[in-house]
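Structure tokens please, single chain.
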Amino acid sequence: MSFGSASFGSASFDSASFDSKIPFDADCLFCKMIVGEIPVELVAESEWAIVIRDINPTAPMHLLAIPKRHCATVRELADADTSLVGELVLLADQAAKKQGNEDYRLIFNTGSGAGQSIFHVHGHVIGGKQLDWNPA
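Here you go.
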């Protein structure tokens, strides 16, 4: 896994270049986005993760950092591949900075009780305004 090899822009994914060895769920909304079945606004991409714009933003900058590997929660991802968690955080940071935000909040909802509604781990990268402490 290589760190820091991100590309930026609003390009679409090339499903032909998707590594079929990466765990994938054909019924998962984010997996469909990763392979190009559902169009997204791509902000950053590395070999193992993507950052896209949230379609329902709650702040001026609201991005989603998503590993290409399908894992339901950040806990599951950490158990499976700790280095991918690090790459995901690094790519989120690069994307936020590319959007002109040095300060941002990175939130991983883990489980339905915490507000997770799509069970493919993703971090919300939120910024672009002064954020209060209340993370909910």
